[in-house]
Design goal:
heterodimer; A: Rossmann fold; four-stranded antiparallel beta sheet; 11 helices; B: mainly alpha
């Protein structure tokens, strides 16, 4: 299988000296759907930002075998798409159309091509015909769907999605899960929603305090309750006392 | 949350609403220019301007009461600026009053200037209400962009439009969080809390700005704004713009030779 994301010995400090990632090593193969889980502040989102070059250190991240540098930054971002957690950050344009067209326009496609891509992307997330709607009139579930459409319109090969189901009600959550399941390509999903992980991913990478503490099959890792409790992902002693 | 206070009624269909935003924007500017440049004693010209605006408003099918109510909103600001003019303008005295230690007098020419400022402001505001309540803001932004307003300005306006609603919600949540913890007490304490809230709002907005920028960069933004040309300037738009401009020119000329 082809390696699409390759990370070796990645460490990262925020400008205020806070350590976010320590010696992260991982490889993700073509077509995989991988969950990146961990407690709050584990460095999951920081790691995602490294995978499409929004944060950069020195060549510890390779996409399709190429280290991310200034020259291939555009190339990288057209292949690796990142959906942010809060759709109000992701959707910044006055209309849904403008937002979904933003990526394709930046990639320099022709007018017809942009129209076609917007239509296809909105269709894929079940929001066909919503081009003219205003982002602030959408429900949270709809915003999340449109946020995914804004990157699908660039037809990326790798999708990085940060907390796709946070704040959604169960119905919204499960319909989003089935939407994600239907999307082709390699996917990396950051979440601490274990139901989502179980339903969507075969492989799980557990991050805690900036380190990879486990990397393996979903069934094995999610079955190990003491391990999950030790990393803040399952009810631990506090719950037993209560 | 739904907020409609910015471009309420802009969804309504009417002859005016269907016009190209550029045609409306340019004629609105032209109308305001004509109104502002009309001499103060041309009553007939003002009556004609008003008739013109009233016709447009009726054609636009925006509720008259809504327009009227909205047009009064800016009056306090205009009054605040203009209310002292009658007292300071030289000329024939219309009335003289003793207020405590001072003797103040009001002049006819001063009153005329005041009246004139109010009428001009009111007519201009009417035309702007007509513009915003028949044009969706998104369309107006497109129009401005194609009228070669600098891209940075268009982006600023569009971010403002997008995040105004998000910020209003955020302020509401901050207020609810404050009130649910029994806000009250001494005045100084209250002011401090409000100061903290404003600070929090600023920092949150600033950080949101960074996240939004990251979301833009992640989709290939490189500082250049690219958009599609989606407006079509039709014959009707040209007719409207040229027709209305001719009417305005006619009123000014008529006024000149009258």
């Amino acid at each position: 299988m082809e390696e699409v994301i390759w990370v070796a010995n990645l460490s990262f400090w925020y400008p205020d000296g806070q350590r976010a990632l320590t010696d992260v090593n991982l490889t993700i193969y073509q077509g995989e759907t991988v969950a990146l889980i961990g407690p709050n502040g584990a460095g999951k989102s920081t790691l995602l930002l490294h995978l499409n070059g929004l944060l950069r250190t020195n060549g510890e991240v390779k996409i399709f075998g190429r280290p991310i540098d200034d020259k291939n930054l555009r190339w990288t971002r057209s292949r690796v798409a990142l959906v942010f957690q809060n759709p109000d950050d992701q959707l910044f344009s006055p209309t849904v159309f403008d937002d979904v067209a933003f990526g394709p326009l930046n990639m320099g496609y022709s007018e017809e091509e942009v129209w076609q891509r917007v239509k296809t992307a909105l269709g894929l997330v079940g929001m066909a015909g919503c081009e003219k709607r205003l982002p602030h009139h959408l429900s949270l579930g709809e915003k999340k769907r449109v946020a995914i459409a804004t990157v699908l319109s660039m037809s990326p090969e790798i999708l990085l999605i940060d907390e796709p189901t946070s704040n959604l009600d169960p119905r919204g959550k499960w319909s989003l899960i089935s939407l994600l399941r239907g999307l082709a390509g390699t996917k990396v999903v950051v979440s601490h929603d274990l139901e989502l992980v179980k339903a969507l991913c075969r492989r799980v990478i557990v991050l805690d305090q900036g380190r990879v503490v486990a990397d393996g099959a979903t069934d094995d890792i999610l079955a190990d309750k003491p391990f999950l409790a030790a990393h803040g992902l399952a009810p631990g002693e506090a719950a037993e006392k209560a | 949350m739904k907020h409609g206070f910015l471009d309420q009624y802009s969804d309504r269909d009417s002859i005016i609403a269907r016009l190209d935003p550029r045609a409306k924007f340019v004629t609105t500017l032209f109308f305001i220019l004509a109104v502002v440049l009309t001499p103060p004693d041309s009553w007939l010209a003002y009556a004609l301007y008003f008739a013109l605006m009233a016709t447009m408003l009726l054609l636009s099918r925006v509720p008259v009461f809504y327009v009227f109510k909205r047009s009064l909103v800016i009056m306090p600001f205009v009054l605040l600026v203009a209310i002292f003019i009658p007292f300071f303008k030289e000329g024939e005295v219309a009335g003289s009053y003793n207020i405590w230690l001072w003797q103040v007098s009001v002049t006819y020419s001063g009153l005329q200037v005041l009246w004139n400022i109010l009428v001009k402001a009111w007519l201009s505001v009417l035309s702007l209400i007509l513009l915003t309540s028949t044009t969706k803001l998104t369309q107006l932004l497109k129009g401005l962009e194609q009228l070669r307003l600098p891209k940075v300005m268009v982006m600023l306006l569009s971010f403002m439009y997008r995040y105004l609603f998000v910020l209003v919600d955020e302020v509401m949540r901050l207020k609810q969080a404050r009130d649910s913890r029994n806000f009250g007490g001494r005045r100084l304490w209250q002011i401090r809390t409000i100061g903290n809230m404003i600070g929090t709002l600023f920092i949150r907005s600033y950080e949101r700005g960074e996240r939004v920028y990251a979301a833009m960069v992640a989709r290939g933004f490189d500082g250049r704004s690219r958009t599609l040309d989606r407006l079509h300037f039709r014959r009707a738009d040209a007719c409207f713009a040229i027709g209305l401009s001719l009417v305005l020119v006619f009123i000014s000329l008529f006024n000149l030779f009258y």
